[in-house]
Design brief:
Length: 247
């Protein structure tokens, strides 16, 4: 699962996440407890969306000082679910961040749209008030983001891309846009030549997109959320410009 199976991170149960000591507050720093953040996301989602939670997946890195998570909600679809991704840290390396999108079950990937980026908030004195607003905004926008992603994917499944065109786009993603790093591009090339999932064997923009989302799992855990958003934004730009389709 993207955000969790990334470089330097490992899966953790809720009890393990809650057991990480919360650092003391200072005059300029107010830590956000991981348990409180998770509880508030689920509580707001229940009240605002009324959708049941399908799964809660959590991860830790940097000796437990960075926390990542994905909560997926049941939207009565066997292939994908509505998800909210989030991150937090106790060592001041990451501010709180949230994003909304889809979980694609066949490949265990997260897809986060670049249309709605929920800006991280630093752990300052009034951070919790801002984070509550951030959570409400993320939850209220989740269904809209899910629908936008669905629309993108429906179009990309119809866009035919040859083996050579796909390889060229991977090259562009490295040298022109800095969306993929060379090591990640090697992974994407390998998946493009031989799809690891039968569902992605067709030579389409959708298959290529999934090669990218597999490749960025090599991104350090603290950067994975931003990497996914960058990939989706880059594909939407290709969608609007090179593929001659309305964005």
């Amino acid at each position: 699962m993207l955000l969790l199976d990334t470089k330097g991170s490992y899966h953790a149960a809720l009890a393990e996440v809650n057991a990480i000591p919360v650092p003391p507050a200072t005059d300029s720093y107010r830590p956000v407890p991981n348990g409180d953040l998770i509880w508030m996301i689920e509580e707001r989602a229940d009240k605002l969306l009324s959708l049941p939670v399908t799964s809660r997946r959590l991860g830790l890195s940097q000796k437990g000082q960075q926390m990542f998570g994905v909560i997926t909600f049941d939207v009565d679809n066997a292939e994908k679910g509505l998800s909210i991704g989030f991150r937090n840290s106790y060592n001041k390396t990451l501010s709180v961040g949230l994003c909304a999108g889809q979980s694609v079950f066949v490949c265990s990937n997260m897809c986060f749209s670049g249309d709605e980026v929920f800006k991280p908030r630093k752990h300052t004195v009034h951070a919790w008030d801002d984070i509550l607003k951030l959570i409400n905004h993320a939850v209220l926008s989740a269904s809209e983001q899910y629908t936008k992603l669905d629309e993108d994917f429906d179009v990309w499944k119809q866009v035919e891309i040859s083996e050579r065109q796909g390889a060229a786009l991977i090259g562009q993603a490295i040298y022109d846009a800095n969306v993929l790093r060379p090591q990640q591009a090697t992974t994407a090339f390998g998946d493009w030549r031989k799809a690891r999932h039968p569902e992605f064997k067709e030579r389409t923009a959708w298959s290529l997109y999934n090669c990218f989302t597999e490749a960025i799992k090599r991104t350090p855990a603290g950067q994975i959320m931003d990497a996914q958003i960058d990939v989706h934004r880059w594909f939407r730009e290709r969608h609007a410009n090179e593929w001659n389709l309305a964005a």
